[in-house]
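New to this. Comment on this protein:
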Amino acid sequence: MKPTNKERSVTKTYLPHQQRVIEEQDDLSRRIFKLECFTATEIFSRLPHVDRNMLIKQLDTMKAYELILRARIARF
């Protein structure tokens, strides 16, 4: 199992810009989770089709961005 960003922070000292990337990925991961939870609600299902589509595209883009951040973090 891969270490979490918090576990990485405990075991290694990061440069300030690296720490910012780690924190950004942590924050993005939480926002992805919240949006995924929202997409499973009744409120989401009642939104106009165009709004649901935009939120799903937003979620997909957030996930792609998170993958990039994770790849960058893996290189630290």
